[in-house]
């Protein structure tokens, strides 16, 4: 019912089509980024029995950030103890 109304409005006002495209694309990209943060970030623990502290198993040269300014992860040394 709602989609039929939206479709009629888009047929009547075609200038709204880019608005729907960009809003939908932004919503999709933000949902994908939120999913990436939830699944790939070492601070998130989904398996509490198998790996309760995943941040202890991250290598110092492992890049988990999407964007790092002036950071060369290959030259980092381990500065924390093993648990």
UniProtKB/TrEMBL annotation:
Main location: mitochondrion
Pfam families: B12D
Membrane topology (UniProt): Single-pass membrane protein
Ranges that cross the membrane: 15-35
Keywords (A to Z) from UniProt: Electron transport, Membrane, Mitochondrion, Mitochondrion inner membrane, Respiratory chain, Transmembrane, Transmembrane helix, Transport
InterPro entries: B12D (IPR010530)
A Gene Ontology term for the protein's cellular component: mitochondrial inner membrane
Localization annotation: Mitochondrion inner membrane
Family as reported in the entry's similarity comment: Belongs to the complex IV NDUFA4 subunit family.
Name of the protein in its database record: Cytochrome c oxidase subunit NDUFA4
Organism: Clupea harengus
Lineage, broadest ranks: Eukaryota, Metazoa, Chordata, Craniata, Vertebrata
């Amino acid at each position: 019912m709602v989609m039929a109304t939206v479709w009629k409005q888009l047929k009547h006002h075609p200038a709204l089509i880019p608005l729907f495209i960009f809003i939908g694309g932004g919503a999709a990209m933000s949902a994908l980024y939120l999913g990436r943060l939830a699944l790939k970030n070492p601070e998130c623990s989904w398996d509490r029995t198998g790996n309760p502290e995943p941040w202890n198993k991250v290598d110092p040269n492992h890049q988990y950030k999407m964007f790092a300014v002036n950071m060369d992860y290959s030259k980092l040394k381990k500065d924390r103890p093993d648990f």
